[in-house]
């Protein structure tokens, strides 16, 4: 079971406007032992990220949230807060994250689950390489995650 820095189950925030995808991802992660928080807007995600009483351990966000801020801004907000971890971001375009976020181009549910499980079970210094190497289909579909790609953790 994924553990939080606080000793409880690891808490993951899922911010996605696609209700079916969000609910399915949440259900799979709950069955894997995560405490799951689901939101559909950037404003709700931002509020959850700022709640110091209930810290978020992991974060998945769709980059193109249609609100005052997008998923990229939220991912950076998450990175700036303890435990200073990168987010998993679903985007419509390939993009390298200089902050070490895991960026997946239009990923399937299975790919997102694999990325979250990989980052949550991998020590920080080797996280980018672990995600890139976790599924050979991902390397072909997401060249920015391929070994040797110009990604900076």
UniProtKB/TrEMBL annotation:
InterPro entries: CheY-like_superfamily, Sig_transdc_resp-reg_receiver. Residues 123-153 are annotated as: Disordered. Keywords: Plasmid. Residues 11-120 form the Response regulatory domain. This is Response regulator. It comes from Microvirga terrae.
